[in-house]
Amino acid sequence: MKLLNLQRRMARAVMSPLTPSEGMQRVAPNGRRMRDVAAEFIKPNDRLTSFERLEIYNRQYWFRVLSAFAEDFPGLRAVLGDRRFDAVAKAYLIDSPSRTFTLRNLGSRLEGWLKKHPALAGSRHALAIDMVRLEWADIEAFDGQADAALKPEDLASANPSRLHLRLQPYIQLLDLRYPVDDLLLGVRKDEDTEFASNAFTERRKRKRVLAVAKLKPSAIFLAVHRLDESVYFRRLEREEFILLSKLREGKSLQRAIDLALRKSSIAMANRASNVQSWFHAWAALGWFCRP
Amino acid sequence: MPASRFNNFTDYGIGIGLRAPHYHHILTRKPVVDWFEIISENFMIDGGRPLRILDQILEQYKVVQHGVSMYFGSAERPNREHLRRLKDLVKRTKTPWLTDHLCWGSVDGRYTHDLLPMPYTFEAAKITAQKVREVRDFLEIPLAVENVSSYAEFHVSEMTEWEFLTEVVELADCGILLDVNNIYVSSQNHSFDPHAYLAGIPAERVAQIHIAGHSKYRKYILDTHDHPVIDPVWKLYADAIHRVGHTATLLEWDDSIPSFDEVHSEALKANQFLAAESLATAV
Questions:
Q1: Is A226 near chain B, with CB under 8 Å?
Q2: Sorting pLDDT into bands at 50, 70 and 90, what band is A154?
Q3: Choosing among B112, B122, B167, B215, which should be mutated to test the A contact, i.e. which has the most A CBs within 10 A?
C-alpha cells in the first residue's frame, strides 16, 4: 500500500466519530466491519487486536480536539448546556476538522457553521452566535499582531480629510444583540471560583445564561482589545463603533467621522467634544498604529 | 553526541520544557537552568503575551525549538504558511538546532494534531527524508528528528523502527532527537528489546535526548508526560549516554505539571548519569 493511501485510510478511521461510550465505531461508513478494515493495515499483537490498536488513536484524536474546543468556548458551553454543547462540538468538528498546524484555529469557522445549523443551538441560537463571535474575537485579540503605536508627531501636519488612521490589527470590533460580554466574564468568574462545588457553579452559570437569554435583543457595540497583554472588552457607543469600523475600512478621518455622526442622536452641540474624548481614550489605549 | 554539526556545535546541559504554569516562577525567581525547550507552535503567532514572555525568557536563557506538527512523514508537501511562521520564530529565538517528530499527522490538508506512527517502508523513508531536507533548506538550520511512542504497527513495514529511523536520518543527513522514554514505551507496546534499538542507531547523529514519564494501562503504555521518569527509563538513558556520549538532555512534563522546582529536580537526576559517563571517559 502506498504511503498516501495508507495515511488516508488511517486518518479516515482516526477522525471518525466515537460511539456514545467513547469507543471506535463497529461499522465503517461504507458498511464494512471496522475490525476487518483495521486488520487490513494494522498488525495485532499478543494483547491487542488491530481494531483495539487503531481505537487508541481514534480516541486520542477526539479527546484532544474536543478538549481544545471546550477550552476555547466555555461561554458557548454555558449558553447551550453540556449536552447540546457536546453535540455541537462533535458535529462541527466532523464537518469542519482542523485545517491548520495549530489547534488555536480550531474554532475559526464556527460562527459561519453555526449559522448554517440553527437547529443545533435550539432556542438560544442568536445568543449562541453572539457568544461564539465574542469568544473567537477574544482568541484573535489575545495573540493578534500589534504594530508600532502612533505618535503625536505622526499627526503634526496632517489634514483630516486626507488622514488615514490605522487601527491596531489585534482590535476586534463587534456588533452584538445580547450583552454576552458580561455573561462571559460571569462564566469565567464562576469557573475560577475556588471552594465552590461543581453543582453550585453550574447552577450559578445556568442562572446567568437564563437571565441574558430572557433579555430582548438590542444592539450592543464592543471593542475586544488588549492592554498590557491582557484582553479586555470595552463597550462602545454606536457612533464610536461606526467611526472605528470606517477607519478600519480605510476611510479618511474626516469621512469616518461624517459617516459615524450621519444618523446620530448625539446633540450637535456635544458632537465635537464627544469625538475628542473618544479619540483621547483610544489614543491612551494605544489603539492606533503608524500608517 | 556532544557538540556536533547536528546541534550546531553546542554543548548544552540539562534543560526542561518551558510551560505556562512556570512562567511567573522563572521570570521572578530567575532559577539557574541550562536551557529551555519551547514548543514552536505555541509561539508561531502574531503578537501578544506569549511572545512577550518568550522575549523575556530569551534575554536570560538559552532556548531550543521543538515542533509538534511539521509531520515530516506526511505524504503531502510542507505547508508554506507553517514554514514561514517557523522561520520567523527561528530568527527570533536563534535556536541553534530545531527538532520535530518522525511521524505523520495530516493528510489532504486535514490535521489530526497527533503524532501518528510511520509505516517502516523504503518509500516512506525516502519521502520523509526528502521533506526533512526541504524544511532544513528553507530554515537554514540543523534539524533533528524525534522517534515517537507508538501503539500500532503496519503490515506493510519492511524494517524495524530503528532501521527506519537510521534510513531516514542517513538519507536526509540530519540529526536524531533520541527520546528514550518513547523507545521504552514502544518497546513495551511492540515487544522489542530497547537496548537493541539503541545499539542499532547511528550514535554520532544524536543531537539531543528527551526523557519523560508515561502512564501504564493494562494492555499498553501511553506516552502522557505526566509522571516522573521511571527507573527502567533512567537505565535506558544511562545506556544511551554510554553509547552517544554527554548529550543535551531535556525533561518533558506536559500534563498534571508540578511546581517548577519539582520538574527541575527531576530533570537534574540526569546529572548522575552524565557525570558517570564523563568519569568513565576520563579514565
A1: yes
A2: confident
A3: B112
CATH of the domain at B231: 3.20.20.150
Checking ipTM against 0.90, whether it exceeds it is yes
Q: Whole-model pTM? A: 0.94
Minimal CA separation from A4 to chain B, in Å: 5
Close Cβ partners of B164 (under 8 Å, ≥ 6 residues apart): B102, B118, B120, B124, B125, B157
Instruction: Give chain B's domain count.
Output: 1
Q: Which domain holds residue B18?
A: 5-282
Helix (H) or strand (E) holding B67: none
pLDDT reading at B14 higher than 90: yes
B84 contacts: CB under 8 Å, gap ≥ 6: none
Comparing CA positions, the residue from B259, B263, B252, B265 lying closest to residue B21 is: B259
Residue B23 sits at the chain A interface (C-beta within 8 Å): no
Q: How many CB atoms lie within 10 A of CB B33?
A: 20
Mark yes or no for CB contact A100/B152 under 8 Å.
no
Local confidence band at A195 (pLDDT 50, 70, 90 cut-offs): low
- The minimum CA-CA distance between A160 and chain B, rounded to whole Å, is 30
B31-49 average pLDDT score: 97
Residue ranges of domains in chain A? 1-71, 146-178+219-291
- From A124, A6, A132, A24, select the one nearest A74 (Cα to Cα): A132
Identify each DSSP E strand in A107-229 by its residue range: 166-167, 172-176, 220-227
